[in-house]
Amino acid sequence: MSGNTISGQEVAKHNSRQSCWIIVHGKVYDVTDFLDDHPGGSKIILKYAGKDATAEYDPIHPPDAITTHLPPEKHLGSVDPGTVLKVEVEVTDQEKARQQRVANRPPLSEILNLHDFEAIAREVMQEKAWAYYSSAAEDEITNRENHAAYHRIWWRPRILRDVTNVDFSTRILGHHTKMPLYITATALGKLGHPDGELNLTRAAAKHDVIQMIPTLASCSFDEIVDTAQPGQVQFLQLYVNKDREITKKLVQHAEKRGIKALFITVDAPQLGRREKDMRQKFEAEDPAEVTGNKQQDKVDRSQGAARAISSFIDPGLDWKDIPWFQSITKMPLILKGVQCWEDALLAYDQGLAGVVLSNHGGRQLDFSRSGIEVLVEVVRELSARRGLSFPNERFQLFVDGGVRRANDVLKAVALGATAVGVGRPFLYAFSSYGQEGVDHALNILHVSAICVTHYRLDANVARLGQDEFEMNMRLLGARTLKEVVPEMVDASSLQSHIVAVPGDRCEHVVPR
User: Fold this and answer.
1) How confident is the model over 449-468, as a mean pLDDT?
2) Residue 175: which residues within 8 A CB-CB, separation 6 or more?
């Protein structure tokens, strides 16, 4: 970037399609040639032409997006902050109503389970953010099935066992965790809260659980790692870039920073059709700068926020790339997004450390089966074909999607999973209540009396921790996770797929 200092008045002159400059984090960029290529359309850029676009840019872009995608000659210099023209923000009646709903939120002591966070988030989040977090593919059948599948698994508890003391701590890829779950990667945390993914990092440290850092975080990778406590375990979720040198640089930087495992996303060669999110781009017309030049048909607004951040992902990723990953890092490699036993077997045979049985939270291929259903067939087939038993330290199985209760987690453990990933509930928690929301969500699942005392929660809230993992372990007759075994579950109905007609019609605008 040039060392020039540019006045706000000079930037303000470049406020048209013919010459469009914007300011982001005190730096001036010429984005004129990028207008028609911007995945989110030119409208939002032209709105901030000649002005400071930082507030709009931050929640929906990875921190380095603009510096990565614009050539160096378009990086014009720094702006004199005292001369910058500020964007007038109009508070609409809709926004005033939302802010009132935020003010009227129930206290955290009344939030009894993870479902409650979703209900609150739906009311208090901005429409664009809710659409991005909650959207799923097409008719959202798989999104519903992810949770419904757990309802078709039934317990066979054991009795007359001394369950005075129960312990549900475990090890994930060799690293200790208080619970058999981890905070899985979810993108664009700042859509829900100004601190974004840092809410998760801080809460994970306090509760001794593992956070998976997303490639498409709103916060920078180094900011998230720097926020972690000494010794805190973090994993990295990786979208593979078409430019392998960029991927190599990120992976090796992550390893140097102490990341303990690499989860390579393999279920997203193309984005699924997420219509709630897509609709955010169809509701407004382009400005005259676009329509007057007959450019509107060139603007790709077909994927909402998701499309705006993911155009770099390589659709050519292939099994032949696995040895390359093994050559550039010593971190354990896990494939995230495996959906059948055949691919799990290939992963095992290629010497990978494990797989996440996942359909991307129902956001990719609708009518994909749930991870918990795939788990059953993977355990069966790898046992028959390779003599493996699960959980297995050499090849670990993880499940994500639809988990809302400790009861769900324990079902996955009984069926052979090492741990499960939980994503959306923690997004909804910090979108509604900030870091305290994530603390409370983990405490609902957590049992540690020390943890409850540390957060100074009242007696009713303290009881919540004991109403999930501890309660379920005792009622199952299991003192440790090793005693949560396949014989304790009846999964014979798991493959019975009865699809209800969606209740919240996907063609409707997101209700407020």
Assistant:
1) 44
2) 210, 233, 260
Look up 314 and say whether it is catalytic: no
Catalytic residue flag (residue 182): no
Give the CA distances from residue 84 to residues 13, 23, 24, 131, in Å, rounded to whole numbers and listed in that order. Answer: 12, 9, 11, 32
Task: Find where tokens 């550039």 sit.
Answer: 328
Q: Is it the case that residue 296 has pLDDT exceeding 70?
A: no
- Cis link prior to 391 (omega < 30° from 0)? yes
Looking at the predicted structure, is the pLDDT value of residue 67 above 90? no
Told to judge if 455 belongs to the known catalytic residues of this protein, a careful annotator would answer no
DSSP characters for 406-428? HHHHHHHHHTT-SEEEE-HHHHH
The single residue of 239, 348, 428, 433 carrying the catalytic annotation is 239
pLDDT of residue 363: 95
Q: Which of 208, 267, 277, 366 is catalytic?
A: 267
> In one letter, which amino acid is 272?
G
Catalytic residue, from 207, 360, 440, 446: name it. Answer: 360
DSSP string, 36-72: GG-TT-SHHHHHTTTSB-HHHHHHHS-TTHHHHHS-G
* DSSP 3-state of 142: helix
Tell me the whole-structure pTM to 2 decimals.
0.85
Cα angle for residues 314, 188, 206 (degrees, 5° grid): 115
